[in-house]
């Protein structure tokens, strides 16, 4: 008999609804508090790889995810006048049954919608304090009256409030990887068809990408920076001004993308950061997904870690009589898988935003000629798929800690 009957989850992104599903499956009640007024749409394509595909299948979500895959065709690097200078077909990259690419907003909708029938969602609210009292945790919110739960799970992303409250300031755990990323939807004035067009200036990358069923195109900006004064924590208006200063007047479609950015309804801007923690649990508070082990958007593994983490956490809660044992088992099973996936190089940054003009020319030449870069990408691909397969969902219970 599980010792945990009711769980508060902070965050309704990918990890939160996935955990709500699995808790319900095991007969555990979930309440989800989400800062946004509704599940946040937006985001570029995210990947489900390896055992995360199995988790999606066990959730009964795989068929719908497969219907929503981006069906990405090719990516072209263009110069300031829009002429193609290099490119690759996504079929050359990851593929097959063990790797699916879907727009983040579509995935959030697919995961979230069924959970509404059996999960209480507290939107437009956030945790302000947590107090552990014996076997219960008292949660205080900005708007909702305080409540107590058997367990609190922080699934509130890279800038997790749960982590800050229970484990201390973000700076203690965050490793900034030297870049910022912005993604938002704009009208597709290029008439793209499953194609990405990508542009570079030294230390900067921009692009547009359209999937078959999407209403508009996704625009992306990546800027290498030594810190840029904590711009990721500044208001969106300042982030937009920062992007205007970095990309205005560079040629290609940059000015049109910047013009369309102001009208976009799903502007996303964040730092490229990893979260490293020695432990994800403190008493009856634990962390899941980006909150505990964000591998950075450039690794492409954040969504898989979140889905697999949700499955493992719920399974261990159902398996153990004591919450402490369940959380220890969750940590022990996830640790090697998280380490392996975080160790996969952030090759995306090197390919999408080389630091120097020479780096851009070298990348383009290597892509045109094939050879070493393609070999290197192949090896990285294999490391990535090995890491993504590196957890046994049906592992027997680990030895009692
Ligand atoms: C709008 C958006 C766009 C993204 N786009 C991309 C992308 O294009 N490519 C990519 O690789 N990754 C992207 N990510 C990150 C990616 O979704 C995660 O790496 C991954 O899916 C892991 O999911 P998660 O549930 O742990 O975190 P997230 O998906 O980030 O979800 C966290 C959730 O917690 C909520 N939240 C945050 N703070 C609080 C709080 N104080 N109280 C309550 N709720 C809170 C957020 O609103 C969000 O709904 C994006 C995240 C967001 C929020």
UniProtKB/TrEMBL annotation:
Residues 6-340 form the FAD-binding domain. Signal peptide: none annotated. It comes from the Bacteria. It holds the Pfam family FAD_binding_3. GO terms for molecular function: FAD binding. This is 2-polyprenyl-6-methoxyphenol hydroxylase. It comes from Nocardiopsis flavescens.
């Amino acid at each position: 008999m599980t010792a945990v009957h009711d769980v508060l989850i902070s965050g309704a992104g990918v990890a939160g609804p996935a955990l709500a599903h699995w808790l319900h499956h095991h007969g555990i009640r979930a309440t989800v508090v989400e800062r946004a007024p509704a599940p946040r749409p937006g985001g570029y394509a995210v990947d489900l790889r390896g055992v995360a595909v199995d988790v999606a299948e066990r959730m009964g979500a795989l068929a719908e995810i497969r219907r929503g895959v981006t069906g990405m065709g090719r990516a072209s690097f263009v110069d300031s006048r829009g002429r193609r200078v290099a490119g690759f077909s996504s079929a050359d990259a990851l593929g097959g049954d063990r790797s699916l690419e879907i727009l983040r907003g579509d995935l959030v909708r697919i995961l979230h919608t069924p959970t509404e029938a059996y999960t209480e969602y507290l939107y437009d609210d956030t945790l302000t304090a947590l107090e552990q009292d014996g076997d219960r945790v008292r949660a205080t919110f900005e708007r909702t009256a305080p409540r107590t739960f058997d367990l609190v799970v922080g699934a509130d992303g890279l800038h997790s409030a749960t982590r800050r409250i229970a484990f201390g300031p973000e700076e203690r755990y965050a490793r900034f990887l030297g870049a910022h990323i912005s993604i938002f939807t704009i009208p597709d004035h290029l008439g793209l068809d499953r194609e990405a067009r990508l542009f570079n200036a030294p230390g900067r990358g921009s692009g547009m990408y359209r999937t078959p069923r999407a209403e508009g195109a996704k625009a992306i900006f990546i800027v290498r920076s030594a810190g840029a004064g904590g711009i990721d924590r500044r208001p969106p208006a300042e982030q937009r001004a920062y992007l205007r200063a970095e990309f205005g007047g560079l040629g290609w479609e940059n000015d049109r993308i910047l013009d369309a950015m102001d009208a976009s309804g799903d502007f996303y801007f964040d730092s490229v950061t990893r979260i490293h923690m020695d432990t994800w649990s403190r008493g009856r508070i634990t962390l899941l997904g980006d909150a505990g082990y964000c591998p950075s958007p450039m690794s492409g593994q954040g969504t898989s870690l979140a889905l697999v983490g949700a499955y493992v956490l719920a399974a261990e809660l159902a398996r153990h009589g004591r919450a402490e044992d369940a959380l220890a088992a969750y940590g022990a099973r996830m640790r090697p898988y998280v380490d392996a996936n975080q160790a996969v190089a952030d090759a995306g940054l090197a390919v999408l935003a080389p630091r120097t003009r020479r780096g851009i020319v070298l990348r383009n030449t290597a892509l045109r000629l094939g050879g070493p870069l393609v070999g290197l990408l192949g090896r990285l691909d294999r490391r990535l798929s090995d890491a993504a397969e590196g957890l046994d969902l049906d592992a027997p219970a680990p030895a009692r800690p």
